[in-house]
Design a protein that fits this description.
There is one protein chain. By secondary structure, the protein is α+β, with helices and mostly antiparallel strands. About 45% of the residues lie in helices and about 15% in strands. It has a 6-stranded antiparallel beta sheet with strand order 2-3-1-9-8-10. It has a 6-stranded antiparallel beta sheet with strand order 4-5-6-7-11-12, covered by helices on one side. Helix 8 links the parallel strand 14 and strand 15. Helix 6 crosses helix 21 and helix 17 packs across helix 18. The model has no long low-confidence stretch (mean pLDDT about 95).
Amino acid sequence: MCGIGGKIEFKKENFIEKDFLLKINKFQKHRGPDASGIWISKNKKIGLSHTRLSILDVSKKANQPFLNTDYVLTFNGEIYNFKEIRIILEKKGYKFDTTNSDTEVLLFAYKEWKTDCLSYLRGMFAFAIWDNIDKKLWLVRDRIGIKPLYFKKNDESFIFASEIKSILLDKSYKPEIDEESLFHYLSFLCTPAPNTMFKNIKKIEAGSWLLIDENGNLTKKKYWDPIENKENFIGDELIFKEKIYKELKNAVKLRTVSDVDVGVFLSGGIDSSTNATLFSKLTKKRIKTFSIGYDKNYKSYKSELQYAKLASRSINSKHYEKKLNKKHFIEIIEKMIFHQDEPISDPVCFPIFYVSQLAVSKNVKVCQVGEGADELFFGYSNWARTIKINKVLKNILFLKPLKKILKILMIFFKFDHKYSYDLLDRSLNNLPIFWSGAEAFSEAEKKRILSNQMKKKFNHRSSWEVIEPYFKRFNKKAKYNNLENWMTYIDLKLRLPELLLMRIDKMSMACGLEARVPFLDHILIAKVIDIPKEIKFKNKNLKYILKQCVKGLIPESIINRKKQGFGLPLKDWFSDGLGINEVKTVMNFVRETDYFDENEIRKILLKRKNDTRIWFLLNLAIWWEIYIKKKTYLSLVNSK
């Protein structure tokens, strides 16, 4: 795993500065502490940079930027099936200088098939290839969006990098908040692609690429979408289960490829236990597993360490754990948000940072994680509740006038900040009631807490505009266009790539650790994205198919335990106060900007002390202090 970056100068009088590329590497060194390099074209109009975390072929020959006559590559990620692709290329006459490098395979794959090479790749990646024949730079983000890739373009130059902080090195750019992104952030805890929270800085969407030439002409293309690349379901549950298990095993096996130690994040749930068990069966080494717990059992979060230990004993792993408390959280808040780049308002960033740090301390460079299993196999209890609510709202006895009365009552009794209010409102407007697995403020409360200028700007808008294009595509392409499959699809398009996968990428890479996600293998996704709801959520059983697959593989007590997500006791900590004067921090942000209504924000802060939505505001306020006000920016940069 690595940090990539680069720049194109469009104006005749401007040339690439070596120091700029070196600074990109310095700012992204945590992503690749093992090696770094830069490349500048002969005319000094194109420059690429790279910092390397050596995982495959750790020799210097595989360092980047990787050159081969007319092509130069800077690559972040892993191509898990690179050996198979290499055999195909060798048969076509390609000679390799490296022995075990997926980087050289990727470069030759582009040389042979150009942009069509993507159809051969099975992995996670963000890369840029300078084609000196066509005089174009090709930038690609993987199908699911596991790896990030940001860019900024104006009349003078084009800059890209794995992290936004590297793009901010451009002295001509003054950081500003993108107000549209802020509006949607209040709904989704993240900024939907292609925008970022920084005005005029964009991110490449999952499953997309862009092509840019020396003159700044830019072409974009979406090359993959899960519902458009689905595999047709065969109506036999037993055969389906066998196919899923086979593909899951293959996905884990592919992600064992490494020339360094690979570990597993182990929470004690079905997902991580399945990962760990399959991985242990596919390697001769005794594997290492890592868990996070807390100093005591809190009301808002119960310890899972006992289940993690149970899973560890069942596979005889070398198990390591760390117990955290509120002090640990306070100690890294600024560092954590600095590494987010743009607000990723999921507090789970906190335990992910510490479990990544724990793994690195035990000489592990790669860990498998369980992200994506809940989305693919219907694993969330709140999804099940949404299905129930949807049935009630669609009941013929539940007439529209009654819904309208309920809505008025919820507003009157000030319940319009509740998730149920949004569900009711969407039903009244004949919209799908599920917009995302991560929803913060209701549309009504969001409008209420905005400042007057923001209210005017977004008065006739809602975050449905983000969801609508996906909903149209899903309805057009899905054979089984049920709510259950819609939930999977929209989270694959929004919540996973821009929230869950970014919290994994940013926190693990801050520690110099690569995180791999077997459940998000695109071949596996193709098999489960469009299936009958009777299979997906059979007998109202969460993760029905996955549970059937792993019966006898992992302990029954783990399969049958009540669902508990990987989290932290934030409600308990907020109820006592974090000890960092979060009210003052948020209110300073509100007063010094013109985005929020001061009185409405104060009500939230003072009346709902244990409401975790305070974290969404606090995360945003601290980010603003770091990146816009630059209150602690330099000290955080220098502490890296």
